[in-house]
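Blinded run. Sample ID left blank on purpose so nobody reads anything into the name before looking at the predicted structure. Input follows.
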Amino acid sequence: MHPTPSQRMRAKQIALENSIGESTVWRYVQQGLLTPIRLTKGMTVFNRDEVEAFFSGKSIKEVSQ
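Blinded prediction complete.
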C-alpha cells in the first residue's frame, strides 16, 4: 500500500529539509538506504516516516509510534 500524499516526499523536498543535495538523496537510494516509490515515469516519492527515521537515526517503528 502506498502512503497518502501528505506522507510522501519528493527528492528535492528531502534535500532541502536535510541540507543535502538531491544527488545525495539518489545516492542513498542506490545504497539501499531509502526506498523510492515510483508513481509515474517522471515522479518518484518517498515515505515520510522512512525518511524521518533515516535522518534521525531511528528505526521506522520508533518514528511511527
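Unblinding after everyone has recorded impressions. The chain has a mean pLDDT of 87.
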